[in-house]
Amino acid sequence: MMKFRFRRQGADPQREKLKQELFAFNKTVEHGFPNQPSALAFDPELRIMAIGTRSGAVKIYGAPGVEFTGLHRDTATVTQMHFLPGQGRLLTLLDDSSLHLWEIIHHNGCAHLEEALSFQLPSRPGFDGASAPPSLMRVTVVLLVAAGDMAALGTEGGSVFFLDVTTLTLLEGQTLGPDEVLRSLPDDYRCGKALGPVESLQGHLRDPTKILIGYSRGLLVIWNQAARCVDHVFLGNQQLESLCWGRDGSTVTSSHSDGSYAVWSPEVGSSLALQPTVATTPYGPFPCKAINKILWRNCESGGHFIIFSGGMPRASYGDRHCVSVLRAEVLVTLDFTSRIIDFFTVHSTRPEDEYDDPQALAVLLEEELVVLDLQTPGWPAVPAPYLAPLHSSAITCSAHVANVPAKLWARIVSAGEQQSPQPASSASSWPITGGRSLAQEPSQRGLLLTGHEDGTVRFWDASGVALRPLYKLSTAGLFQTDCEHADSLAQAAEDDWPPFRKVGCFDPYSDDPRLGVQKVSLCKYTAQMVVAGTAGQVLVLELSDVPSEHVVSVASVDLLQDREGFTWKGHERLSPRTGLLPWAAGFQPRVLVQCLPPAAVTAVTLHTEWGLVAFGTSHGFGLFDYQRKSPVLARCTLHPNDSLAMEGPLSRVKSLKKSLRQSFRRIRKSRVSGKKRAANANSKLQEANAQLAEQACPHDVEMTPVQRRIEPRSADDSLSGVVRCLYFADTFLRDAAHHGPTMWAGTNSGSVFAYALEVPVAAGAGSEKRPEGMVEAVLGKEVQLMHRAPVVAIAVLDGRGRPLPEPYEASRDLAQAPDMQGGHAVLIASEEQFKVFTLPKVSAKTKFKLTAHEGCRVRKVALATFASVACEDYAETCLACLTNLGDVHVFSVPGLRPQVHYSCIRKEDISGIASCVFTRHGQGFYLISPSEFERFSLSARNITEPLCSLDISWPRNATRARLRESPKLSQANGTPSIILAPQSCDGSPDPAHSKGTDTSEPLEAVLSPMSVDSATSADTTLDTTGDVTVEDVKDFLGSSEESEKNLRNLVEDEARACAILIK
Amino acid sequence: MNRSFHKSQTLRFYDCSAVEVKSKFGAEFRRFSLDRHKPGKFEDFYKLVVHTHRISSSDVTIGYADVHGDLLPINNDDNFCKAVSSANPLLRVFIQKREEADHYNFGAGTLSRKKKVLVALRDEGLRRRAHLDISMPHDFRPVSSVIDVDILPETHRRVRLYRHGCEKPLGFYIRDGVSMRVTPHGLEKVPGIFISRMVPGGLAESTGLLAVNDEVLEVNGIEVAGKTLDQVTDMMIANSHNLIVTVKPANQRNNVVRGGRAPGSACPSSEGAGPPAPHVLQNFHPYEAESDEDADIVIEGAVAPPAPTRGAPPGGLARANGTSLVPRRPRDGSIHRLLSTLQPDPRHSLVLPRGGVEEHGPALTL
Known about the structure:
Chain B: Residues 304-331, 346-366 are annotated as: Disordered. Chain B: Keywords: Cell cycle, Cell division, Cell junction, Cell membrane, Cytoplasm, Membrane, Tight junction. The complex is a heterodimer of chains A (1063) and B (366). In chain A, 15% of the residues lie in helices and 37% in strands. A five-stranded mixed β-sheet of chain A has the order 14-15-16-17-21, with no helix packed on it. Chain A has a five-stranded mixed β-sheet with strand order 23-24-25-26-37, with no helix packed on it. In chain A, strands 38-39-40-45-42 form a five-stranded mixed β-sheet. Chain B is of the alpha+beta class. Helix content of chain B is 20%, strand content 24%. Chain B contains eight helices and 14 strands. The model of chain B is unreliable at 1-13, 112-130, 260-293 and 304-366 (pLDDT under 50). At the A-B interface, strand 50, strand 53, strand 54, helix 12 and helix 16 of A face strand 8, helix 6, strand 13 and helix 8 of B. Strand 54 (776-784) of chain A pairs antiparallel with strand 13 (297-300) of chain B.
């Protein structure tokens, strides 16, 4: 016992080294669509696209797998972004009017995005008048002129400032104030009014000295920066929204707040134009909303594209989010489901080309990115290889399947292709193709399944950096739902003006909340899966390569059994469609089991080898033989006092009830106090006294501190019957000599039920299906954890302490057969502690009390295999655990010794913690926003991160000897992390660095501590220690000496106290 | 077997006024029943017991196992009444001849498993001194104790709360606050956890050892410094079976006086000295605080091992506390079918603790 305890305290250096080889924490990549995008930019030369968000994140995307992420220091909205073409540099404007220059920098051959410079416009520039209020200095627009050497900033006050981009310094003396422009205007237009903020700045493709300036009031000016004079003036009178300058400079298109646009052409002769050549209101004549942005693109085949957003008739379609694409007589109104942020066309930008020839139109919406192919007739949408809107319907659950067999993978991919046939041309026409992904082909295929509120399950390719949609399974077709959307679609088709076209797949509206998917489980060897939903429906599905028409057998299982006195007050169960139903190729339902009462399914597990599915709700659990289509077992887990579980969807009812009760109390209290006051109001003296008394003690009332009650869990806590986990295992439950199929169930109140199953065994080993015959379940053990914490997970470990393989894994030689000789053990993870019990005796072997020691609770738990970076074939199975504080802990199995822990998610991010899912190889996903999964890895070896390069050409003179501290790379959700240098490149510095500072490569690649940081550092933080001087050392020694002295004093005091005691 | 199974089921039903009594004298068992609401006088009960067991010498002590598995005496009307009314579901009565009776075997934990050796060693000194017989101390069970007085600074107090069963809550609230600490940099304000209020009638209040505004320094040997209120709450609840809190009492006048120093004149350096110095903690290791009181209950189902391979658990007596332990009836039919395949006589398949208590239906072990 003593020895045991001492060993726990000491740190074994060998073990520490091994830990460093096994574990490392990295947040690697964000999958999905950036939350709350606010800005868009495209670099036509490098063919990369940048998206800025309201939280200050910058994400750059190129070819699939090419991704860069950066985060501004302040969480301010990114309002505008501009690429310096071909340089891999990006200028961002935040809503605090600060400008930031980002650079894609190569370290050891891999590119990263880093912030290089930032700039804040001085609030009091010299000549603009000292009295200029700060709001006039707000930057409204940014334009890069002269190939990105200089930037023009339009401000709210109407001035245009010029900035040297490479150093982000203001070019003094070049500022163009509104007065200068006003001077060249005719008097009758001037009429004493200000020009308003600068609304738009446009550059000329061929003549970089000319700038088109649009003021809010409607005035358009072509300014010659070289000559510092006004070339042309267009006297617009309608409030300006945006401008577009044609390639040859002969057309200027302006859009206005009344929903009209105008085309101006600068005549050679006069420098003043009073009227536009064309002015139309496309969706008139009734009042229209503003056209926010307009693009004019000419084509070689004649004609031009006019693409604009907004401008819809205010009364009838004012709430639609539309982009109109007009070419000659063809007008298409693209109708989106979310707000339009920005859009751009992919077109030729070489000055020598005659025409724009737009290839594609990319529209960034609040919730998704839509790309249309403008060269194919009909302008079809191009499926995006990344940026998938994960949340097209809200994600309700997720699961990860590792090591998917190639055969199943191909079948799922082909089912997905049949589902949404892609024309061969558009598959290759994704226009954003910049950069090269250096990441190796993933060694194994990982499938991420997300269950959604609308009853769909989506299959994602999670093998690499880009999360690609593979297949979508809808379960809604099996049920009769209230609203059929066929008629609404027909209605939309009747209106032919404006010619709406529904684009995009973001559809957050669910037909029926009962369809929501709660739990998903997939067997990768038999391609069978189970999907369980909110209304207690459990669907067993099987992948089929051909469409079929068949009847789905329906069964219902009463989980309450003979419990009396309970009535279900929640939603009704879904009514399934009966008869022959057509099913497309893909996962086709075979059996539907409906739980009674129809509470949401809280746990589900599938064993394809035995043909069994187990499911649990807040009332109990059931076991169903889907091969014979007969129920095997139903067990109620409700505590007699548990009444809340019967009142339907849990949280809502509870909170409503609570709030109702509270509001009644409040009413009652106020009535009582009101009466009192009325009684007291007899005399004024009394009233005054009462007031005095009230004033004297408000502190006590208001200062009620946050307090927590110390109250142990009692047996009759509400919702104790919720089944939290279900598990199948072939292990020793009856005696140590015979093993057999078992089923385990854990509840919210810390009860574990273990059933011995009698499953007919197949005669031959090769036969796929088990023979017909009754399956029986007999209760073998019942464990009540004394601390009564909810059971989060159950797993059986074999004689060598490894988890049992999945069904068919052992019989098909895909995994090492479990050790059936040594004693098995069951690992029960509750919210508070982990315990390993021996089997079949169920006596506690080891335990770790997480809550008692650390004060945190277990939220998610998974057994994962961690491979070593040092040794090719060394791996350990460990228990990964996410706590309610967002920390990830790793424990050895079955010793349950804490190995490492990292803080992963903010503890306030409850949905992130709830959504976390671990993979079998030490990675994990969690939602950082409704639409984004953050991927992290705990394994030192198994890391999926974007490794990519970009061919950047910087101008020769751009190299500066800038020495600065390397910023910490951080993730877009605000958690700083360390990106480790890739091992493959370790010790092989880029030859470009050795040439000296005069190369086009930036200097900081050599100086950065990034390259020093080794891949094996586990939880070190980068410290940027500068030069250590003698003074520093002295200071350090002095302070430590002093504290030591203090400590010694304290210790002496204690010793004296002890001495007195001994006397 | 089937018959008795049903019988015990009905008898253990809550509202039934009859209380099943199982009385043990030596190796003999007797069963009879009492009216829960009108148990009668102790005298009558005593006579009944003596009569049913046919004990010649009438000098016996009667004890019973309460819901926590503690052996408590029945020697007057009050505790007899209490024993009958709290019987849940059956009242187990133990009879010993007075001359054989060990005086010290009443009290908490006497029926539960043995303590860990180390815990026992540590407590030995206390126990030896505690054997002053003052008017039947064994009628009582410990509710709380002040422990480790010799190793803690005088300003601190380590309180152990014993919780029995689930009926009585620990009964206090904690809050965030600010406390003064002596650090190497001088006096500093640091966040701390304080007791904010007591539940009237709760365990904490009844001990009188904890008070409002006491600062909580440790929970079961783990410092709370740097932990959030919620974390500390969870730690206390997770340790609620055997909660040991180290507090700095707000009222320092009732401290244990050591070495003749006057109360309140504690040496200024240790006044508010924050977490006790490491050496103070060394004979109190967090892992030591793990008692076996939280041993989980395993109920063997119908498919118990074919032959009982081990004897009775060390405690000798199975413990049945809480209704959740009432054996649930397995699915009809299947159990018998299965049992008959295993053993010709189903009764042999049940765990019968050797020399222990006879139980009907699935047996309970610890």
